[in-house]
Structure formats: structure tokens, C-alpha cells
Design brief:
This protein is an alpha/beta fold. It contains six helices and 28 strands. It binds adenosine monophosphate and magnesium ion.
């Protein structure tokens, strides 16, 4: 495929990615550690839950008889113990929350309602209803019931539900193996002493933090100078075994921007190159077999913005998430905003209780707004002016 000759819109870029990204293969593994992953296969209960009738209260279990308010104490039933022998008529058993309901009992009276002397209890007969405070076998779900569907996101609550039905192995979509190539002769790691013309490499820590946040533990990274051979070698290596390659810098049109040529030379097919947006206009997406390559213009705000808008949803789509390209929602602008038509603007914003403030310092080299920013505000290409309170789309980290 040859390089598209035009600059595409943000919506076209999103649609191209959305329509071509497919979840990676499914793998079966432990339920433990699966939070944040997406189920590739539905989960069915192995048992009735609860597996036995049990008490919802600390109190006394009995076979309720209308008109009787005195019961003889016949023993004790703790949680986790096998069943107490069947009680006789007129008998009660001291019972604790979660304990198996002894045979013959149908009702639990909470201890606060009971007067007890050594061997018997008195209950407020007029307040008792048969079956009160009993959790019945199978009242959550029956053996064989569907409890989670393929495509569901494993939240901590859903992990708990799956464990409760006795399932410890689940099928989830794989997380991508990511390679990060950071380019730039001017870069040195934070912690070293800057020489003339040098700056600290902030994009690598940013990208690693994003992967951490997305629970993607499998990555490799390399930082190289603006040298065509180094760039090409590093990319060739990543193309061998990475599912996704992220490149920082070197994708603009300067004479030391070698990334596009290197990708083309390695046979990576351009999906798009350049998007009508600010920041991050020279953003590039390409494909090599079933691998994805994204090149991010090196200005730190462009990297953060492009990751937030495209790469995060792309990675989530590979991990089986649905609708990952949808914005997180709308918020009302706290003040009016003007811009020129022609590019979609992504602005560092601070969202709070349904309102969003566009922050100072929107230049793409300037990171200071990230002290406060918790989202990007999207102002569409054609829009030139928005009033205070106007609804805008936002995407959180
Ligand atoms: P480039 O896309 O390579 O032309 O870089 C654009 C701007 O971003 C330049 O000012 C670079 O110095 C800066 N830049 C590139 N890479 C990084 C990085 N890893 N960390 C911080 N700034 C960078
Ligand atoms: Mg550069």
C-alpha cells in the first residue's frame, strides 16, 4: 500500500483504526491477576451459590411454630462446620452468619431480639416470619448458570463473582507485547547532567507509565540517536516479536527525521500519516503482518495526546475491550473558547464534577499543565468558538 497523499481527519483516523483492530488471541490462565483483562469465553457456575441454606445473621436457628415463644437450646452451629444434626420440634440452635442451617430449621432470629437463659431462649413471636434471615441454596445462582459473558471486563467485583462459583481458570485476551523506540540525539535520561543542547528524555517515562496504567507488563524499549541505521536496526528487531511498536520522535519532515523512511524500507504499510489535529499532526499508523506500528511526533504533549486519543484505545481494542474509541463523556466548558478552523484541537483540561477547564500552557513542548490535567478536551475541526457551558467531549487518562 502506498502512502496516502492527504492528511486525514481525526474521525477518519479513528475509524481506520477501529475498523482494523482485532483482539489478540485468547489465553487460559489463573483468575488471580486477571483484573482489567477482558474475558474471551463466557463463565458458567460450577455450583449452586450459596451451596447450602445458611444464616444471614448471628442469632438462633429454629423450626418456627406459630404461637411458641420459648425454644430449648440444642447446640451451636459455626460457619464452616458440617451440618448439625436435625433439631426437634421446640428446639433452637445458636448460629452464626454464614453457618449451615441445621436440618429441620427454617428461620433465624437475630440475637438482638432474643432473651437467653442457660438452656432456653425467648423470642418476640409476633415479629417472626417463617424463613427470615435465611439465605437459600442457589439464591445467587444455580449450577450451570451464565455468570460472565465473553467480552466482559474483569472488574474486582466480577473476579469475586467468578471465584464464588468455583472457577479458577478463565480465558482472556492476551496483552500485547510492546516495543518502544525513542529517537533523538538530544536526549539523555533524567538523573544525568545536561550538556549543551541536550534535554531530558521525558517521553520514555511517559510511555512506560501509560503501559503500567494499562497493565501491559511485557515491553522492551530502546533509545537511539537520529541515525538512519540505528533507527532501522532497532525497528527491524522489534518487528520480529512485538505486537505493537511505539516510536517517539523522528516522524516529522525535518532532515533528521528518519522514522518514516525506515518503516517504509522495512515493508511496514502506512495506514495513515498525518492527521488534521493539534498537537500531533505528523502522527503515523502502520501495519506489518498482524503487528501495529505507531509513530508519535516527539513533542511531549503530542506524545501524551496521541497516546491518550489513539494508542490507548488501540491497545485496549487488542486486549478485547469494546468501544475503546468512544470518548469518556461530555463536560461543560467553564469559560468560552476560540480557535481557528481546520484542525481538531486536543487541549489539556481539568475535569471536575461535570465541568471542564482548559488549562494554560497548551504549547506542545510545555508539560506544566500536566500538574493539574486529568483529561483532554476535544474541539472539532470546524469549530471556531464555544460559549461558557458549551458541551465538549473529553477523554480521561
Ligand atoms: P521530533 O518529533 O523528533 O522532531 O521532536 C520534536 C520535539 O520534541 C523536539 O523539540 C524534541 O527535542 C522533543 N523531543 C523528542 N523526543 C523527546 C523525548 N523523548 N523527550 C522529550 N522531548 C522530546
Ligand atoms: Mg527528533
Amino acid at each position: 500500500m502506498s502512502q496516502p497523499p492527504y492528511m486525514i481527519s481525526v474521525d477518519e483516523a479513528r475509524n481506520l483504526l477501529r475498523s482494523q483492530l482485532r483482539p489478540l488471541q485468547a489465553v487460559t490462565g489463573s483468575l488471580l491477576g486477571s483484573s482489567g483483562r477482558v474475558l474471551a469465553e463466557s463463565v458458567f457456575s460450577k455450583i449452586d451459590v450459596p451451596p447450602f441454606d445458611n444464616s444471614a445473621m448471628d442469632g438462633y436457628a429454629l423450626a418456627y411454630e406459630k404461637g411458641r415463644n420459648t425454644y430449648r437450646l440444642a447446640g451451636e452451629q459455626k460457619a464452616g462446620e458440617p451440618g448439625h444434626e436435625s433439631v426437634e420440634k421446640g428446639e433452637a440452635v445458636r448460629i452464626f452468619t454464614g453457618a449451615l442451617l441445621p436440618g429441620g430449621c427454617d428461620t433465624v432470629v437475630q440475637q438482638e431480639w432474643v432473651q437467653r437463659d442457660k438452656s432456653q431462649i425467648q423470642i418476640p413471636e409476633d415479629r417472626i416470619r417463617t424463613g427470615m434471615n435465611v439465605r437459600y441454596r442457589g439464591s445467587q445462582n444455580k449450577c450451570g448458570d451464565l455468570v460472565a459473558e465473553a467480552g466482559d471486563l474483569l472488574s474486582p467485583g466480577l473476579v469475586g463473582l467468578i471465584a464464588s462459583v468455583g472457577v479458577d481458570q478463565i480465558s482472556v485476551y492476551s496483552t500485547p507485547k510492546v516495543g518502544i523506540l525513542v529517537t533523538g540525539d538530544e536526549l539523555i535520561p533524567a538523573g544525568e547532567i545536561l550538556g549543551p543542547g541536550q534535554i531530558y528524555n521525558s517521553n520514555l517515562p511517559t510511555l512506560l507509565s501509560f503501559l503500567e496504567q494499562l497493565n501491559i507488563p511485557t515491553y522492551q524499549h530502546q533509545t537511539v540517536g537520529d541515525d538512519p541505521a540505528q533507527v532501522k536496526n532497532a525497528l527491524a528487531q522489534f518487528l520480529r516479536d512485538r505486537d505493537v511498536i511505539l516510536i517517539s520522535g523522528g516522524i516529522s519532515v525535518g532532515e533528521y527525521d528518519f522514522v518514516h523512511d525506515a518503516l517504509t524500507g522495512l515493508g511496514v504499510e502506512t495506514l495513515f500519516y498525518k492527521v488534521r489535529q493539534k498537537p500531533g499532526k505528523p502522527f503515523y499508523a502502520g501495519k506489518y503482518q498482524n503487528k501495529w506500528v505507531f509513530a508519535l511526533p516527539g513533542n511531549p504533549s503530542s506524545v501524551i495526546c496521541c497516546f491518550n486519543q489513539y494508542i490507548k484505545p488501540a491497545l485496549l481494542s487488542l486486549m478485547g475491550h469494546k468501544n475503546a474509541f468512544e470518548p469518556d463523556g461530555e463536560a461543560a466548558l467553564t469559560h468560552p473558547w476560540q480557535k481557528k478552523a481546520g484542525l481538531t484541537h486536543f487541549l489539556k483540561g481539568h475535569w471536575d464534577k461535570g465541568k471542564v477547564r482548559i488549562l494554560d500552557g497548551q504549547e506542545s513542548y510545555n508539560l506544566l499543565a500536566f500538574q493539574k490535567a486529568n483529561c483532554f478536551v476535544e474541539i472539532p475541526e470546524a469549530c471556531i468558538s464555544l460559549d461558557e457551558g458549551a458541551p465538549v467531549q473529553i477523554r480521561f487518562w
